[in-house]
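Saturday, quiet lab. Running sequence design on the structure tokens for the scaffold JK sent over.
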């Protein structure tokens, strides 16, 4: 735990609990370090004395995934971001995952954290971010809002990066359902080439089936939406236990990652299920890119619901 001599790499720790559900939210990145129900861990998080691995639980904004060469044009400007994935020469996972968020409000079952993103040469717009994490009878819920504080429109995308685990079930044994008709084909830099239909292919998870030996780091799109406009990805174990990751209508993409490139014991130990507003490289392609007007606030919600 955090102490005066060796503070936690993830900063302050805020624990919330209700109805047998408990979560830990952290200062660094304002993300989710742990979530459990009745003592059973449902996210593959990390310890308080551990540096966050593999973007576990991170909030990804103002873009998710990757931007080719960190270079993009918006309006009249040509801009260059720092290359946070230098091996592939990409800008990756936004600008708010390694910064200190502050406490806005806290109760036993909920905590709201915030961050003010200042303008920078690569992203010259100011944003105000707020996330309310809560737990209750229906599981874990995250409500996000992002406001453009700049005097002009800003390019924007959003995602989160939880890794899901089911007790006593290896990734190969887990049954996966992803309600999406297409997937994104990528090059060796994990950047989009094209979209293709999943029907009749090994990537078709529109009906639940075991992951088996499939290697996934895949963006799924053309989402089949529920009546309320949202959608959900389901992971189920052979014993009948299941996790449902739901997202509201703001999220039209799901990234599913089976962790094959993670080091050590984390390799293929859990499945990242990431609700996204846009696919990789949206700052360049414009695909589902949000243009956030001055003073405009974007809001989106998602959550994890354990159950059969």
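Result came back. Writing it out in full:
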């Amino acid at each position: 735990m955090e102490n005066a001599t060796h503070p936690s790499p993830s900063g302050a720790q805020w624990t919330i609990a209700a109805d047998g559900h408990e979560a830990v939210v952290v200062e660094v990145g304002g993300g989710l370090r742990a979530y459990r129900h009745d003592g059973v861990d449902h996210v593959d998080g990390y310890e308080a004395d551990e540096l966050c691995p593999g973007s576990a639980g991170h909030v990804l904004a103002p873009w998710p995934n990757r931007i080719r060469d960190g270079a993009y044009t918006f309006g009249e400007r040509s801009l260059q971001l720092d290359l946070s994935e230098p091996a592939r020469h990409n800008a990756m996972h936004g600008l708010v995952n390694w910064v200190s968020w502050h406490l806005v409000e806290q109760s036993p079952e909920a905590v709201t954290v915030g961050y003010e993103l200042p303008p920078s040469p690569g992203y010259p717009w100011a944003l105000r971010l707020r996330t309310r994490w809560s737990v209750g009878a229906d599981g874990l819920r995250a409500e996000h809002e992002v406001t453009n504080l700049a005097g002009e429109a800003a390019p924007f995308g959003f995602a989160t990066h939880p890794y899901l685990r089911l007790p006593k079930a290896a990734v190969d044994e887990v049954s996966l359902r992803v309600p999406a008709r297409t997937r994104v084909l990528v090059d060796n830099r994990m950047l989009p080439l094209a979209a293709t239909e999943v029907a009749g292919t090994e990537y078709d998870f529109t009906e639940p089936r075991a992951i088996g030996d499939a290697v996934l780091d895949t963006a799924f799109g053309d989402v089949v939406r529920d009546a309320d406009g949202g959608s959900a990805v389901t992971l189920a174990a052979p014993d009948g236990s299941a996790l449902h990751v739901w997202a509201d209508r703001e999220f039209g993409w799901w990234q599913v990652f089976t962790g094959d490139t993670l080091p050590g014991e984390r390799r293929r130990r859990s499945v990242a299920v990431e609700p996204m507003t846009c696919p990789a490289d949206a700052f360049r392609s414009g695909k589902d890119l949000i243009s956030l007007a001055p003073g405009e606030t974007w809001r989106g919600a998602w959550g994890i619901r354990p159950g059969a």
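Notes for JK: The radius of gyration is 18 Å. The chain has a mean pLDDT of 96. Ask whether to fix the surface positions before the next round.
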